[in-house]
């Protein structure tokens, strides 16, 4: 200890604490050496921690940072930590986007499957309804044929006429439709040929007469129209009968008529004698 550090024969005590006990703030490096009269010199750290580190408090003071911004590499750990956090956030965002795309694809697939299922159910329901209606109307086709024949013969009168008209209106409301008209081209898909002939008045197979109308429901044919068909060509003449049963006999038309002609008796002979005998008998 030098004489300049002594005052009135007392040792000078320097406060090397970095934290000011009065204010609680960090002291600057120039304020750590304030001397107090009557205090001893720099205190040596005691205890096992001071003894284990060589240099004591002097080494601690040298290793401790002097203040904010004293070490340029102090902000590097924070920057590394921030970069790691950003990388983790980017990875989480990418995973979330991938999961969102998968969930969206699943939702779209389920929606498409449900739409197809609903269309299939509606189509099957319509087919079942059409089949049921067709089965009922098929049983009423003979009744409609009887009504049509009665109308043709003008027998559809009175209460029977009202019932027939109500029945026809009901089946029409259910979708029953009759088809088949004279003169339309023959179509084997909707026509059934019951009679056939040739005619020079047609250029293609034609329905010249509707024997029974056809019936259908929508695109379903309940019964084809039964028609008479004529094809282009010459009409065939009826053949004349040959043989012994013909109109003329072997000796001509008189023989065939059973002797209707005049037959002359030869003059003289037994014929004259018989005539004279009959005359004499009358005279007697």
In short:
With 284 residues, the chain is of the alpha+beta class. 44% of the residues lie in helices and 15% in strands.
Given this structure, which CATH class of the domain at 176-232 is correct?
Answer: Mainly Beta
The main pleated sheet reads as:
3 strands, antiparallel
Report the principal-axis shape. Answer: rod-shaped
What amount of the residues lies in strands?
15-25%
Helicity level: 40-55%
Characterise this structure:
Among the domains are: 84-135; 176-232, Nucleotide Exchange Factor Grpe, Chain A, domain 2 (Roll), CATH 2.30.22. The radius of gyration is 67 Å and the shape is rod-shaped. A hairpin with a 2-residue loop joins strand 6 (214-217) and strand 7 (220-223). It has 6 helices and 8 strands. With 284 residues, the protein is an alpha+beta fold. The chain has a 3-stranded antiparallel sheet with strand order 3-6-7. Strands 4-8-5 form a 3-stranded mixed sheet, with no helix packed on it.
């Amino acid at each position: 200890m030098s004489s300049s550090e002594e005052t009135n024969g007392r040792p000078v005590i320097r406060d090397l604490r970095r934290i000011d006990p009065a204010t609680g703030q960090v002291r600057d490096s120039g304020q750590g050496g304030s001397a107090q009269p009557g205090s001893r010199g720099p205190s040596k750290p005691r205890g096992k921690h001071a003894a284990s580190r060589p240099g004591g408090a002097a080494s601690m003071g040298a290793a401790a940072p002097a203040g904010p911004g004293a070490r340029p590499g102090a902000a590097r750990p924070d920057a590394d930590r921030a970069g790691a956090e950003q990388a983790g956030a980017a990875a989480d965002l990418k995973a979330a986007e991938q999961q969102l795309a998968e969930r969206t694809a699943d939702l779209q697939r389920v929606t498409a499957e449900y739409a197809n299922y609903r269309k299939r159910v509606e189509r099957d329901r319509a087919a079942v309804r059409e089949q049921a209606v067709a089965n009922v109307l098929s049983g009423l086709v003979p009744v409609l044929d009887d009504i049509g024949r009665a109308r043709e013969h003008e027998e559809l009168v009175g209460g029977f006429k009202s019932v027939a008209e109500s029945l026809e209106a009901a089946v029409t409301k259910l979708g029953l439709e009759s088809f088949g008209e004279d003169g339309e081209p023959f179509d084997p898909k909707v026509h059934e040929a019951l009679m056939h002939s040739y005619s020079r008045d047609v250029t293609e197979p034609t329905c010249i007469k509707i024997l029974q109308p056809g019936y259908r429901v929508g695109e379903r044919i309940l019964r084809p129209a039964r028609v008479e068909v004529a094809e282009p060509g010459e009409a065939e003449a009826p053949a004349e009968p040959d043989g012994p049963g013909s109109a003329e006999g072997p000796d001509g038309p008189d023989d065939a008529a059973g002797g209707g002609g005049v037959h002359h008796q030869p003059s003289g002979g037994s014929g004259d004698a018989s005539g004279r005998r009959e005359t004499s008998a009358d005279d007697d």
